[in-house]
Amino acid sequence: MKKKKIIDSGFNDWNPSQLSDLKGKTYLITGGNSGVGYEAAKILAKANANIIVGGRNQDKITQAIIEINKQGSGKIDSVLIDLSSLSSVRNASKEIHQRYTEIDGLLNCAGVMQTPQIETIDGFELQLTTNHLGHFLFSGLLLDLIERALGRIVSVSSIVHWDGQIHFDDLMLKVPKAYSPMKSYQQSKLATLMFGLELDRKLKTRGSSVSSIVCHPGFSSTQLLNNGPKGISKFIGKFFMTLMAQPAYNGAIPLVLSVAGQEAISGAYYGPQSMGEIKGKVSDASVAEQALDKKSAERLWKESEKLVEHTWFS
Predict the structure, then answer these.
(1) Candidates 38, 185, 269, 270; catalytic one
(2) Is 185 among the residues known to form the active site?
Protein backbone atom coordinates (compact mmCIF):
# COMPACT_ATOMS: atom_id res chain seq x y z
CA MET A 1 0.00 0.00 0.00
CA LYS A 2 1.62 3.21 -1.23
CA LYS A 3 0.55 6.61 0.03
CA LYS A 4 1.74 10.20 -0.10
CA LYS A 5 0.86 13.75 0.85
CA ILE A 6 -0.56 15.58 -2.13
CA ILE A 7 -0.33 19.23 -0.99
CA ASP A 8 2.00 21.27 1.20
CA SER A 9 -0.36 23.65 2.98
CA GLY A 10 2.45 25.37 4.86
CA PHE A 11 1.52 24.54 8.46
CA ASN A 12 2.05 21.58 10.81
CA ASP A 13 -0.14 22.29 13.84
CA TRP A 14 -3.44 23.97 13.00
CA ASN A 15 -5.81 24.56 15.91
CA PRO A 16 -9.20 26.27 16.40
CA SER A 17 -7.65 29.34 18.07
CA GLN A 18 -6.70 30.40 14.53
CA LEU A 19 -10.34 30.75 13.47
CA SER A 20 -11.55 34.24 12.67
CA ASP A 21 -14.91 35.51 13.94
CA LEU A 22 -17.48 33.56 11.92
CA LYS A 23 -20.46 35.78 12.72
CA GLY A 24 -22.92 35.76 9.82
CA LYS A 25 -21.56 32.56 8.28
CA THR A 26 -23.67 29.38 8.16
CA TYR A 27 -22.40 25.80 8.34
CA LEU A 28 -24.48 22.68 7.82
CA ILE A 29 -23.10 19.59 9.56
CA THR A 30 -24.51 16.13 8.89
CA GLY A 31 -24.11 14.07 12.05
CA GLY A 32 -23.77 17.31 13.99
CA ASN A 33 -25.55 15.90 17.03
CA SER A 34 -22.84 13.41 18.08
CA GLY A 35 -19.16 12.52 17.92
CA VAL A 36 -16.71 14.64 15.97
CA GLY A 37 -19.57 16.38 14.13
CA TYR A 38 -21.00 17.58 17.43
CA GLU A 39 -17.59 18.78 18.61
CA ALA A 40 -17.04 20.58 15.30
CA ALA A 41 -20.44 22.26 15.70
CA LYS A 42 -19.47 23.53 19.17
CA ILE A 43 -16.11 24.85 17.96
CA LEU A 44 -17.72 26.70 15.04
CA ALA A 45 -20.50 28.02 17.29
CA LYS A 46 -17.90 29.34 19.73
CA ALA A 47 -16.58 31.43 16.83
CA ASN A 48 -20.16 32.82 16.50
CA ALA A 49 -21.13 30.88 13.37
CA ASN A 50 -24.70 29.89 12.54
CA ILE A 51 -25.03 26.09 12.65
CA ILE A 52 -27.52 23.72 11.02
CA VAL A 53 -27.37 20.36 12.78
CA GLY A 54 -28.31 17.50 10.47
CA GLY A 55 -29.32 14.18 11.98
CA ARG A 56 -31.81 11.31 11.99
CA ASN A 57 -33.23 11.69 15.50
CA GLN A 58 -34.92 14.95 16.47
CA ASP A 59 -34.67 14.26 20.21
CA LYS A 60 -30.91 13.77 19.98
CA ILE A 61 -30.59 16.86 17.79
CA THR A 62 -32.57 18.93 20.30
CA GLN A 63 -30.31 17.80 23.15
CA ALA A 64 -27.19 18.64 21.14
CA ILE A 65 -28.52 22.08 20.25
CA ILE A 66 -28.91 22.96 23.94
CA GLU A 67 -25.14 22.65 24.38
CA ILE A 68 -24.18 24.12 21.00
CA ASN A 69 -26.33 27.18 21.78
CA LYS A 70 -24.23 27.93 24.85
CA GLN A 71 -21.05 28.42 22.82
CA GLY A 72 -21.59 31.67 20.93
CA SER A 73 -23.98 34.22 19.47
CA GLY A 74 -24.94 32.44 16.23
CA LYS A 75 -28.29 30.94 15.33
CA ILE A 76 -28.58 27.14 15.77
CA ASP A 77 -31.00 25.32 13.49
CA SER A 78 -31.63 21.71 12.52
CA VAL A 79 -32.72 19.51 9.64
CA LEU A 80 -33.78 15.87 9.71
CA ILE A 81 -31.78 13.76 7.29
CA ASP A 82 -31.16 10.04 6.97
CA LEU A 83 -28.21 9.62 4.60
CA SER A 84 -29.19 6.00 3.94
CA SER A 85 -32.47 7.12 2.31
CA LEU A 86 -32.26 9.09 -0.93
CA SER A 87 -35.79 10.45 -0.46
CA SER A 88 -34.80 11.74 2.99
CA VAL A 89 -31.75 13.44 1.47
CA ARG A 90 -33.94 15.13 -1.15
CA ASN A 91 -36.46 16.23 1.47
CA ALA A 92 -33.68 17.73 3.60
CA SER A 93 -32.38 19.64 0.59
CA LYS A 94 -35.85 21.05 -0.07
CA GLU A 95 -36.14 22.20 3.53
CA ILE A 96 -32.76 23.92 3.43
CA HIS A 97 -33.66 25.68 0.17
CA GLN A 98 -36.88 26.94 1.73
CA ARG A 99 -35.07 28.42 4.73
CA TYR A 100 -31.69 29.56 3.37
CA THR A 101 -30.37 31.44 0.38
CA GLU A 102 -26.74 30.45 0.89
CA ILE A 103 -24.55 28.04 2.88
CA ASP A 104 -20.92 28.86 3.69
CA GLY A 105 -19.90 25.32 4.40
CA LEU A 106 -21.32 21.80 4.13
CA LEU A 107 -19.54 19.39 6.45
CA ASN A 108 -20.41 15.85 5.40
CA CYS A 109 -19.66 14.12 8.68
CA ALA A 110 -22.42 11.60 9.38
CA GLY A 111 -21.43 7.99 8.95
CA VAL A 112 -21.68 4.37 9.97
CA MET A 113 -18.81 1.95 10.56
CA GLN A 114 -18.41 -1.80 10.05
CA THR A 115 -22.10 -2.63 10.15
CA PRO A 116 -23.52 -6.06 9.33
CA GLN A 117 -24.71 -6.50 5.75
CA ILE A 118 -27.84 -4.34 5.54
CA GLU A 119 -29.82 -3.26 2.50
CA THR A 120 -31.22 0.27 2.49
CA ILE A 121 -34.73 1.25 1.47
CA ASP A 122 -33.31 2.01 -2.00
CA GLY A 123 -31.79 -1.46 -2.29
CA PHE A 124 -28.20 -0.36 -1.71
CA GLU A 125 -25.53 -1.46 0.78
CA LEU A 126 -25.78 0.58 3.98
CA GLN A 127 -22.20 1.76 4.49
CA LEU A 128 -21.59 2.86 0.89
CA THR A 129 -24.94 4.67 0.89
CA THR A 130 -24.60 6.47 4.22
CA ASN A 131 -20.93 7.37 3.95
CA HIS A 132 -20.73 8.16 0.24
CA LEU A 133 -23.86 8.11 -1.92
CA GLY A 134 -26.08 10.08 0.46
CA HIS A 135 -23.48 12.82 0.82
CA PHE A 136 -22.76 12.76 -2.92
CA LEU A 137 -26.42 13.51 -3.59
CA PHE A 138 -26.83 16.04 -0.75
CA SER A 139 -23.76 18.00 -1.86
CA GLY A 140 -24.98 18.11 -5.45
CA LEU A 141 -28.43 19.30 -4.43
CA LEU A 142 -27.01 22.10 -2.24
CA LEU A 143 -24.32 23.22 -4.68
CA ASP A 144 -26.26 26.34 -5.72
CA LEU A 145 -26.52 27.58 -2.11
CA ILE A 146 -22.85 26.91 -1.49
CA GLU A 147 -21.83 28.70 -4.70
CA ARG A 148 -23.72 31.83 -3.63
CA ALA A 149 -21.62 31.96 -0.45
CA LEU A 150 -18.33 31.15 -2.24
CA GLY A 151 -18.37 28.26 0.21
CA ARG A 152 -16.89 24.83 0.84
CA ILE A 153 -17.91 21.20 0.61
CA VAL A 154 -16.00 19.02 3.07
CA SER A 155 -15.92 15.23 2.87
CA VAL A 156 -14.84 13.22 5.92
CA SER A 157 -12.80 10.13 5.03
CA SER A 158 -10.67 7.83 7.20
CA ILE A 159 -7.22 6.25 7.37
CA VAL A 160 -8.92 2.92 6.57
CA HIS A 161 -9.12 4.12 2.96
CA TRP A 162 -5.43 3.17 2.68
CA ASP A 163 -6.44 -0.49 2.34
CA GLY A 164 -9.68 0.13 0.47
CA GLN A 165 -10.69 -0.80 -3.04
CA ILE A 166 -13.65 0.24 -5.18
CA HIS A 167 -15.37 -2.96 -6.25
CA PHE A 168 -16.84 -1.66 -9.49
CA ASP A 169 -18.16 -5.06 -10.56
CA ASP A 170 -20.01 -5.46 -7.25
CA LEU A 171 -20.29 -2.07 -5.52
CA MET A 172 -22.94 -3.32 -3.12
CA LEU A 173 -20.89 -6.46 -2.32
CA LYS A 174 -23.85 -8.72 -3.05
CA VAL A 175 -21.88 -11.61 -4.51
CA PRO A 176 -22.04 -14.48 -1.97
CA LYS A 177 -19.32 -14.16 0.67
CA ALA A 178 -18.11 -10.86 -0.87
CA TYR A 179 -19.30 -8.79 2.07
CA SER A 180 -17.35 -8.07 5.21
CA PRO A 181 -17.98 -5.11 7.54
CA MET A 182 -14.42 -3.82 7.22
CA LYS A 183 -14.18 -4.35 3.46
CA SER A 184 -17.36 -2.34 2.98
CA TYR A 185 -16.22 0.39 5.36
CA GLN A 186 -12.86 0.71 3.59
CA GLN A 187 -14.60 0.99 0.22
CA SER A 188 -17.01 3.64 1.49
CA LYS A 189 -14.24 5.81 2.94
CA LEU A 190 -12.09 5.45 -0.17
CA ALA A 191 -15.13 6.50 -2.21
CA THR A 192 -15.58 9.52 0.06
CA LEU A 193 -11.99 10.64 -0.52
CA MET A 194 -12.11 10.03 -4.26
CA PHE A 195 -15.35 12.00 -4.47
CA GLY A 196 -13.84 15.00 -2.67
CA LEU A 197 -10.72 15.06 -4.84
CA GLU A 198 -12.67 14.55 -8.07
CA LEU A 199 -15.12 17.27 -7.06
CA ASP A 200 -12.20 19.67 -6.59
CA ARG A 201 -10.96 18.89 -10.11
CA LYS A 202 -14.41 19.35 -11.63
CA LEU A 203 -15.07 22.62 -9.79
CA LYS A 204 -11.74 24.06 -10.86
CA THR A 205 -12.34 23.04 -14.47
CA ARG A 206 -15.64 24.93 -14.39
CA GLY A 207 -14.22 27.98 -12.65
CA SER A 208 -16.54 27.48 -9.70
CA SER A 209 -16.24 29.56 -6.54
CA VAL A 210 -16.77 26.45 -4.38
CA SER A 211 -13.89 24.65 -2.66
CA SER A 212 -13.81 20.90 -2.09
CA ILE A 213 -11.67 19.73 0.83
CA VAL A 214 -11.29 16.30 2.43
CA CYS A 215 -10.20 15.41 5.95
CA HIS A 216 -10.16 12.60 8.47
CA PRO A 217 -10.49 12.62 12.29
CA GLY A 218 -7.87 9.99 13.06
CA PHE A 219 -8.88 7.45 15.67
CA SER A 220 -11.30 9.35 17.88
CA SER A 221 -13.48 8.32 20.79
CA THR A 222 -17.06 8.38 19.43
CA GLN A 223 -20.23 6.27 19.42
CA LEU A 224 -19.48 4.66 16.03
CA LEU A 225 -18.31 1.45 17.68
CA ASN A 226 -21.60 1.13 19.55
CA ASN A 227 -23.62 1.34 16.35
CA GLY A 228 -21.52 -0.80 14.01
CA PRO A 229 -19.20 -3.70 14.80
CA LYS A 230 -20.54 -6.80 16.52
CA GLY A 231 -19.01 -9.53 18.68
CA ILE A 232 -15.24 -9.82 18.86
CA SER A 233 -14.70 -6.91 16.44
CA LYS A 234 -16.59 -4.60 18.79
CA PHE A 235 -14.63 -5.87 21.80
CA ILE A 236 -11.28 -5.37 20.06
CA GLY A 237 -12.34 -1.92 18.82
CA LYS A 238 -13.31 -0.78 22.31
CA PHE A 239 -10.05 -2.10 23.74
CA PHE A 240 -7.96 -0.12 21.26
CA MET A 241 -10.20 2.94 21.65
CA THR A 242 -9.55 2.95 25.39
CA LEU A 243 -5.84 2.46 24.79
CA MET A 244 -5.13 4.71 21.83
CA ALA A 245 -8.03 6.95 20.77
CA GLN A 246 -7.94 10.71 21.07
CA PRO A 247 -10.92 12.72 22.39
CA ALA A 248 -13.65 13.55 19.89
CA TYR A 249 -12.76 17.24 20.27
CA ASN A 250 -9.30 16.56 18.83
CA GLY A 251 -10.80 14.53 16.01
CA ALA A 252 -13.00 17.49 15.12
CA ILE A 253 -10.07 19.85 14.55
CA PRO A 254 -9.29 18.71 10.96
CA LEU A 255 -13.00 19.06 10.16
CA VAL A 256 -13.14 22.62 11.47
CA LEU A 257 -9.96 23.55 9.60
CA SER A 258 -11.41 22.16 6.39
CA VAL A 259 -14.79 23.86 6.57
CA ALA A 260 -13.80 27.23 8.06
CA GLY A 261 -10.04 27.66 8.48
CA GLN A 262 -8.53 30.41 6.35
CA GLU A 263 -5.44 28.24 5.88
CA ALA A 264 -7.30 25.34 4.20
CA ILE A 265 -6.67 24.80 0.49
CA SER A 266 -9.14 23.38 -2.01
CA GLY A 267 -8.10 19.89 -3.07
CA ALA A 268 -6.24 19.22 0.17
CA TYR A 269 -6.60 16.33 2.61
CA TYR A 270 -6.14 17.07 6.33
CA GLY A 271 -5.77 14.96 9.45
CA PRO A 272 -3.67 14.26 12.56
CA GLN A 273 0.02 13.42 12.15
CA SER A 274 1.16 11.11 14.97
CA MET A 275 1.08 7.31 15.46
CA GLY A 276 0.17 6.51 11.87
CA GLU A 277 -2.13 9.52 11.67
CA ILE A 278 -4.48 8.32 14.41
CA LYS A 279 -3.90 11.35 16.64
CA GLY A 280 -1.76 14.44 17.13
CA LYS A 281 -1.10 17.76 15.44
CA VAL A 282 -3.19 18.59 12.39
CA SER A 283 -1.71 19.13 8.94
CA ASP A 284 -1.68 17.53 5.47
CA ALA A 285 -2.62 13.84 5.60
CA SER A 286 -1.49 10.88 3.49
CA VAL A 287 -3.49 9.73 0.47
CA ALA A 288 -3.37 6.15 -0.81
CA GLU A 289 -2.22 5.58 -4.38
CA GLN A 290 -5.58 4.14 -5.48
CA ALA A 291 -7.39 7.32 -4.37
CA LEU A 292 -5.39 9.31 -6.93
CA ASP A 293 -6.45 7.23 -9.94
CA LYS A 294 -8.35 9.79 -12.01
CA LYS A 295 -9.93 7.23 -14.34
CA SER A 296 -11.34 5.32 -11.38
CA ALA A 297 -12.54 8.56 -9.81
CA GLU A 298 -14.40 9.50 -12.99
CA ARG A 299 -15.91 6.03 -13.18
CA LEU A 300 -17.02 6.23 -9.55
CA TRP A 301 -18.53 9.67 -10.21
CA LYS A 302 -20.59 8.38 -13.14
CA GLU A 303 -21.71 5.30 -11.22
CA SER A 304 -22.70 7.48 -8.26
CA GLU A 305 -24.71 9.85 -10.46
CA LYS A 306 -26.52 6.87 -11.96
CA LEU A 307 -27.28 5.28 -8.59
CA VAL A 308 -28.65 8.44 -6.94
CA GLU A 309 -30.28 9.67 -10.17
CA HIS A 310 -28.71 13.11 -10.02
CA THR A 311 -26.42 14.77 -12.55
CA TRP A 312 -24.16 17.39 -10.99
CA PHE A 313 -23.26 19.40 -14.06
CA SER A 314 -25.26 19.73 -17.27
Answers:
(1) 185
(2) yes
